[in-house]
ubiquitinyl hydrolase 1 (Colletotrichum sidae), 677 residues
Amino acid sequence: MAYLRQWKEEADRQYDAIVKALLDLEGEQPSTAIEVFDLYCRPRTSPMVILQRLNKDHVKNTPTEWRERIADYGVGMTQLQRAERMVAFMDDPPALESELRNPGHANWKPLDYPDTLLLEIDSGLMVREVQESVAKSMRDPPSGKNTTMQLLMGEGKSSVILPIVAAALADGSRIVRIFVSKPQSKQTQQMLESQLGGLVNRRLYHLPFSRATRVGPAEAEALALICIECMTSGGILLVQPEHILSFQLMGVETAITGKMDVSRPLLQLKDFMDRKARDIVDESDEKFSVKFELVYTVGTQQSIEHSPDRWICIHHVLGIVREAIAEVEKSYPDSVDLHPGRPGCFPRLRILRDDAKDKLTSLVSRQLSQEGSPGLPMATQPRKVQSAVLEYITKSSLSQAEIEAVEKSILWSPLTKNTLLLFRGLLASQILAFVFCQKRWKVDYGLDPTRNPNTQLAVPYRAKDSPSARSEFSHPEIIIMLTSLSYYYGGMTDEDLLTTFSHLLRSDQADMEYQVWVADSDHLPHAFGQLSGINLDDREQCTEQVFPCFRYAKGAIDYFLAHVVFPKELKEFPHKLSASGWDIGEEKSQPTTGFSGTNDARAFLPLTISQLDDEEQQHTNAQVLEYLLQDGTLMTLMPKQKTPGRSDAEVLLEMVTHLQPPTRVILDVGSGVHENA
């Protein structure tokens, strides 16, 4: 308490001295009515009014002596706040120790960075040495080039370092842009408004931009004026990567389409940004990922090449996978995560190790080379041709002789060429392995019935049960396979089944196709074994007795996708404009700096970005391991399911309820539970 009282008296003394100097009342009293009137008409003084003389609006007009005196008063205020926190933490030893270890202002001068001092006062915090060290490297990278650095999670990257770096760089000569992802944008906006909107008095600007934005000459000019205002006023431009990439592609697209009155100001603004923008990237490993790509399609929409055989052949391959996976699991039970599911369905499958992946690829490729597929008759081919095809569709690197053994054989023709190339892409290029090894349903992909405009194709997911708002898959084989798996795992709705049956009744050979569905049905009543036994007008009978039997039937789903979904929605364009996370890290006049809690993506950073290994942060990864291995952290293995049909969630919750001490919170970090949250 004595320490608190000491700093309270010191802060009051400094404030009184400043007020006394301002009012020029050192021993003199007003002697006339005019002087009394002048005294009471002077501007009101308060600690906030005095401290505001250090922000960007007033600091240049404040004499140096006054800056020093006000900065000293500001330091006294931070020490007073620190003393108040120490008193409040008397019953919290770890927090008290943290305050004692940080006396403040050890490796920076408040007069050099007055915005940081004002932020400390406004937010009631003290910038730690490690935070200032990282901030210094971000303000002025040692190499002078694009740099990203690592700081342990929870060290105040976004709440402290980001605003003090942005405020220091926004000096009116450049436009400071802060890149955040869409899920972070609202929280980051609130945090920056709180940290920079008080004494610091920095305005926050936004530049939401997408292809749906209607841009004419007037709008393009307005965008340029906003950016110039942001720069000259010392504001901060908060952007999302997709907004900047969309803006970049819009300028190129309008030039291609001949809209030069729009393209010219957009490209000029892009050039202005390249010269004046000083970029700060939060969670940089995600933003700089080449996986982050924005595509503008150009031209007239058309059906994809080799349709409908393209998805018919893929459905045939998935049928082989369904039959072969039991043998793979038998050979490598620990390398496969398999949930058999209902009769006739496609089992929920995930390949965990390379041995199972290689086994599955071998079984699929061998059956394709020996028995073929629709449009590729292999059973009647000579053994030599079958062996050549096996090599052709499985080896990623072929010799000229191996290529000619297939492409100059009697099998190669305009009717079979695309199918062989398709199988080579699925197996030799490991698209099939990628889908089952790297992609997880409802975690990485799935359906989104709420998307606008509506789509029945699979879309990327940002996290478990969180579909991306606008992203799409661009690779045709990936789209076909992930869409098929989404329906295999999630089943068709009653509306989907009604549409499918209606289409089947209008088609040729409906009875023959229906028998394929019956073979995959789940305990279909005998009365509905023939298509003639189904009356679609009896909706109650259909929804209660018929549709549940076909909801997960692979044959019915394949028909629905092949005749309803893919012909309508699976389209391609002759040209594409593309921009990725690497464009964010391109070399510009001003360096780009970023930071993240991890550095394991350093090998995949853009070639224009280097990882700064600060000696003071070398311990970061080891410190994370220390947290994981510290006393009190226990590991419990999830038991294997012994009862068929039980879900992962049921097994997990049963295990958790029997843990000692009792578990209070469950964080499914790895998305191990597939059931809806």
